[in-house]
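Problem 12. The chain below contains 257 residues. Write out its predicted structure in token notation.
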Amino acid sequence: MPKFRVSTGKPGETPDEVVAPDWAKALTNVLGRFGVGKQAIRVDVNKEGTTELWEEDSGIHYRMDIDPDTSFDLGDDPTTDLWDAPTPGSGFSQAATPTMEDQGRIDVQIASILQAPTLDAAYEQALTLLLTHIPAESGSILIVSGEDLHFVCVHGPKAEQLTGRSMSASDGIAGAVCQSQSALLIRGVRKNPQHYRDVDRDVNHVTLTLLAVPIVHDEHTIGVIELLNPLGSDTFTGWHQNFTRSVCETLGSRLSQ
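Solution.
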């Protein structure tokens, strides 16, 4: 079974050894050391499999390395087409931050999710709202049912292939978010040799940057919202994270009615 070395990077520190079947489950182990914070835990991955995790508010930092004796088969890398992606430096991040007046309208739109007549309508309203204000290639809402996560609403180039699909609630990054109830902002997802590739491979898609936020109500995880591949940038901004968290909180309340 793969081994991972986890450390804070302090001089003279002896790394902890984490044995896990894959990178995502090792990630879950490390996430448990943060506690549940207000901001997304930022995760950067390089092609050697080194993972840096940190939380800006608390300053907590961990480094997770794959044991040198562990090897992985990366398989073939699929391809994807991004829709109308603006070029980097095009001003996307500045344009994505709303004015105070716009924020007031957005807050009203978030609150209106509570009045959605059906659960399907609530899913559609929440994801449409997010992708209206956050330039991203695609987005998904996954809902926990038993031991599985179901793609109940998907927008993007692979929506038809993904909608209705299921995966184990303990697998992949979505599983890590469900178990830890921590929001994650991950860059370099595809560089990671232990990225949960089944979904990407099956629908011929490449995930590069991922924002995953849990849908929680009364400390119970209901599901996850994922936004993939911000357009014109390699990351989602702090406003994107806070906005997505607000939508998740309101959707969680609607689903629990």
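Discussion. The first helix runs from residue 23 to 31. Students who got a different answer should revisit the alignment rule from Section 12.3.
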